[in-house]
Amino acid sequence: MSTEPGTVEPITGKYVHVDINGTDHRVYFEENGPEDGTPLLCQHTAGCNNQEWRHLLTDEEITDEFRVIAYDLPFHGKSVPPTSEDWWEEDYELDAEQFVETIVGIADALELKDPIYMGSSMGGNITLELADWHPDRFQALIGLECGVHSPGFHIDWLDHPHINTTEVNAYSCWGLMAKQSPEQTRRETMYLYEQGATGVFKGDLYYYSVDHDYRDKLDQIDARECPLYAVNGEYDYLTDPSDGREVANGIGEGATAVEMADIGHFPMSEHPALFNAYLKEILADITGDREGDLPETLTPDEVGVQLGPSS
Question: pLDDT of 158-205, one tens digit each?
Fold first, then answer.
């Protein structure tokens, strides 16, 4: 659907200063929705930025009720490295402790009360650490493409002087998206990946593939007061729906696994219309506005989205 010339989108962009392990970081975020709405804090995928959430930020059905906030992690997008450190003297490498400290720090700096956290890929995996370490900080946790362990992706050719990593990083994402997703939005997802700084994608994948491992720790998580949703796309071969079910079964009460049919690893950017429709069902479950339990699999027919040609 085209937009009329002169349309000004209601998204606002700001910077907030966040203390992360004693270092001041100037963090960029965009938001839309009522100031007193339920905060929905959105984390992008590894090596990318908050533009992945632009279609969610303009969904009026969601922003009428929720204050949607999408931020750039430090070193990503418009959140430049800290000015108080010689950050160029060592490789960027994200671990679980730093990741959690950043997310909670952003929520605290923005003074968010009972926010819902949602992240995809590495942002989905981190819901397990958030649920384990900070269960009282969030109203609910939505882990898109979430898994207990995702090894094998912290590899040298994602940051190598003989390789055009900008192009390689983008094309490594192509096969992770569903063939049903519109080509325009799949290409845009790749385009966003071409904007990342050298070494940042690989550095994020240190957390994703090396530091994150909950295979023997799911029983540490109590999701009864802070529900956790493991929501995985049918066409995601990294963390497929069986990985989401493993998370929910391992945690038990308070954890729910949902399969998203006909969508892949980047649901919010590869097929925004379908993902937003799926998300509305999950948000209604969190707020208690949904009649009945969530189905094990959400389908386009169930949410009233008709799939078109992929190109």
Answer: 777 877 778 888 888 899 999 999 999 999 999 999 998 889 999 999
Distance from C-alpha of 147 to C-alpha of 249, rounded to nearest angstrom:
12
Tokens (6 digits) for 196: 């990342």
Q: What is the pLDDT of residues 137-171, one digit of tens each?
A: 999 999 999 999 998 778 776 777 877 778 888 88
Give the residues across from 256 on adjacent strands: 229
Query: How many C-alpha atoms does 172 have within 13 Å on its Cβ side?
Result: 21
Instruction: Please give the model's pTM, rounded to 2 decimal places.
Output: 0.95
What DSSP string describes the chain? ----TT---S-EEEEEEEEETTEEEEEEEEEES-TTSEEEEEE--TT--GGGGHHHHT-HHHHTTEEEEEEPPTTSTT-PPPTTS-GGGS-----HHHHHHHHHHHHHHTT-SSPEEEEETHHHHHHHHHHHH-TTS-SEEEEET--SB--S---GGGS-TTS-HHHHHHHHHHTTS-TTS-HHHHHHHHHHHTTPPTTHHHHHHHIIIII-B-TTTGGG---SSS-EEEEEETT-SSS-HHHHHHHHHHH-TTEEEEEETT--S-HHHHSHHHHHHHHHHHHHHHHT-SSSPPPSEE-HHHHT-------
Rounded-to-integer distance, Cα 233 and Cα 239, Å = 8
